[in-house]
Write a structure and sequence with these properties.
The chain is mostly beta strands. The N and C termini lie far apart (40 Å).
């Protein structure tokens, strides 16, 4: 079972940038998908970006063109570069690892890192 640790959150002004990192406790090369989700106060957790094992990435419409996800299977890390941040990007950001096996799908989550966009 993989353990995920996020880092890089903090307070940033609107228009600023942050880089979130997720470090896995074991190899992530076999995981079907690595991704980032976020949860704002009073709202459901939502997908931000994913990076599939075949190299395909996907972004939510709200962050497309501003955020960039990368995956390093040798360093066992997933990074989310966030540019042109907006107040509505304020949330707790969670790293996710998804693994499909013959017995079904398993999701693993980090503890989250707070991102606050405010002037």
């Amino acid at each position: 079972q993989v353990q995920l640790v996020e880092s890089g959150g903090g307070l940033v002004q609107p228009g600023g940038s942050l880089t979130l990192s997720c470090e896995a406790s074991r190899s992530i090369s076999s995981y079907t998908v690595m991704g980032w989700y976020r949860q704002a106060p009073g709202k459901a957790r939502e997908l931000v970006a994913t990076f599939m094992s075949d190299g395909v990435s996907h972004y939510s419409n709200s962050v497309k063109g501003r955020f960039s996800i990368s995956r390093d299977n040798t360093e066992n890390t997933v990074t989310l570069q966030m540019n042109s941040l907006k107040p509505e990007d304020t949330a707790v950001y969670y790293c996710n690892a998804g693994l499909g096996t013959a017995r079904g799908w398993n999701d693993y989550w980090g503890q989250g890192t707070q991102v606050t966009v405010s002037s």
